[in-house]
Amino acid sequence: MVQLNLPENSKVKKGKYFKDRTGSKNLKKVNIYRWDPSSGENPRIDTYEVDMDNCPSKVLDILNKIKNEIDPTLAYRRSCAHGVCGSCAMNMGGKNGLACTTPHAEIEGDIDIYPLPHLKVKKDLIGDLDGLYKQYKSIEPWLKSNSKSETEEIYQSKEDRAKLDGAYECIMCACCSTSCPSYWWNGDKYLGPAVLLQAYRWIIDSRDDERQARLKKVADELKLYRCHTILNCTSACPKGLNPAKAIAEIKKMLATANI
Ligand code: SF4
Ligand code: SF4
Ligand code: FES
Predict the structure, then answer these.
(1) Which residues contact 95 (CB under 8 A, 6 or more apart)?
(2) What is the mean pLDDT of residues 173-177?
(3) What is the pLDDT of residue 1?
(4) Same domain assignment for residues 141 and 251
(5) 102-155 confidence digits (pLDDT tens)
(6) Ligand nearest 171 Cα, by number?
(7) Shared-domain flag, residues 123 and 159
(8) Ligand 3: distance of its center to the CA of 171 in Å?
(9) N or C: which terminus of the chain carries fewer CB neighbours within 10 A?
(10) For residues 9 and 42, is the Cβ–Cβ distance under 8 A?
(11) Are residues 140 and 215 in the same domain?
(12) 71 within domain boundaries
């Protein structure tokens, strides 16, 4: 019988325990994935007792509190703190989301915090998004217009502009792609929901003159048709977008396009 074991150095070990020093009666235990590739040590889960009486409402507030008051070595990404930049995406209480918009009160019991799933980890909660950004670049996410004029407006009607609603709001946080089983197993070839939603956003832009070429580019067994409509992506999106629908729309356009 084949026996499959994880390599010894990839096993997640029990880490340090940071006991509360404030004397607070309102404590929450927060378990956080830690890994520093330069240490040569295994990943571990560190546990922090956090005083919730003096902590604002979001998971990012907990991380900031830990970093500022308990353990400055903790690494994570954040920038805007308002759900706009997408950099604080991580897995909290078993769900992908933005730490800056996720209320910690919504997570019952201890709070478990991991990096986004199925990405290589750069350090602690920082997932490696290089592959995703390469894929993003491959769909050429900018307007391609035949207009030679640099001064004339490229007109778009209100109706055509409204078609971009539900697509332009994407902040490329990768919560959707990293919750997609097809992307987990084929992330090197399948573009995944985040990038396909972006591809869709440019395909349907009435000002763009390369719709056919854009459709042709994604019309590929591996790049597009690895989506099996499992819909994890849509339920993971912290902006309430529907990448699965966008993927279905691309497939529909391809079924009727002469490509
Ligand atoms: S609908 Fe498609 S993209 Fe979304 S989770 Fe399922 S397989 Fe992935
Ligand atoms: S579709 Fe939603 S989850 Fe996916 S990258 Fe865009 S904002 Fe993030
Ligand atoms: S810090 Fe920008 S989205 Fe969370």
Answers:
(1) 236
(2) 98
(3) 66
(4) yes
(5) 999 999 999 999 999 999 999 999 999 999 999 999 999 999 999 888 899 999
(6) 2
(7) no
(8) 9
(9) N
(10) yes
(11) yes
(12) yes
Same domain, 204 and 102: no
Residue finishing a domain among 112, 127, 142? 127
Q: Report yes or no on 3 lying in a domain.
A: no
Q: What's the pLDDT tens digit per position in 57-115?
A: 999 999 999 999 999 999 999 999 999 999 999 999 999 999 999 999 999 999 999 99
* Residues of the domain holding 188: 130-256
In what helix (H) or strand (E) does residue 194 lie, and over which residues does it extend? helix 192-203
- Of 221, 228, 241, 249, best ligand 1 pocket probe by most atoms within 8 Å of the beta carbon: 228
Please indicate whether residue 170, judged by its CB atom, sits closer than 6 Å to ligand 2: yes
Domain count, the chain: 2
CATH number at residue 185: 1.10.1060.10
Residue from 85, 96, 172 whose mutation best tests the ligand 3 pocket (most atoms within 8 A of CB): 85
> In sequence order, which residues have a C-beta less than 8 Å from that of residue 203 and are 6 or more positions away?
211, 214, 215, 250, 253
Separation of CA 224 and ligand 1 centre (Å):
10
Look at strands 27-34 and 44-51 and give their pairing. antiparallel
Mean of pLDDT over the chain: 95
Q: Is the dihedral of CA 96, 102, 107, 113 positive or negative?
A: positive
